[in-house]
Amino acid sequence: MACSVIAIDGPAASGKSTVAREVAARLGYAWVNSGAFYRALTWWMLREGRDVREDRLASIEARANFDGTEARLLVDGMDVRQHLRDPEVNRHVSPVSQLPIVRAIVGRELRAIAAGRDCVIEGRDIGTCVFPETPFKFYIDASPEERERRRREQGESDSILERDRLDTGRTVAPLEPAPDALHLDTTCLSIEEVVRRILAAIAAPRAG
Ligand code: DC
User: Fold this and answer.
1) Angle CA(141)–CA(143)–CA(147) in degrees, nearest 5?
2) 153 three-class SS
3) Cα–Cα distance between 113 and 71 in angstroms, integer?
4) How crowded is the C-beta side of 86, counted as CA atoms within 13 Å?
5) pLDDT tens digits for 10-30?
6) What is the pLDDT of residues 93-110, one digit of tens each?
7) How many other C-beta atoms can be found within 10 angstroms of the C-beta atom of residue 73?
């Protein structure tokens, strides 16, 4: 039987990670944060320098590994988790994630992961581009003010509205809800309520 993919997309600081991790834990699925993959590649490119060439990018070894039930992308064998939230990474991750070669690397790893296990995958284009065939699609949002408040509370310097602008405005895999995604505005919802609604939607018999 094919493995299940639960796709959770949405803008920065919408609560995706907390919700995706919790849904995965309750279902016993793997948790895959695709933004962390783009962040790992961004950190690597910043380290290589501005003029990193496409053929060098194409030849890097970027492989997903599991740390418990959480997928991590190792770049050239390095686990760079302590750098994923660096201000420099926050600033550059949107432009870097527009590069077709970068999207190809991440897309390939996500499909390899999902071929072998049930998983909850969060990101920007999981339901629209990477796994359009999954029946389990969710789009999580919150007001810009609430998302900025949440990010401030995490003590991070991150221009989330600028990232939203780049992520929604790009031509390749823009952030947008899949037409068949269940849209959840979490501005006034607790994490528990969002998780409950997702689990209920997954358990409900689907029309058609
Ligand atoms: O989820 P996050 O904020 O950590 O993601 C960081 C960036 O990675 C986001 O601004 C755009 C990019 N990204 C993407 O292009 N596609 C995805 N599926 C996930 C993230």
Assistant:
1) 80
2) helix
3) 8
4) 17
5) 999 999 999 999 999 999 999
6) 999 999 999 999 999 999
7) 27
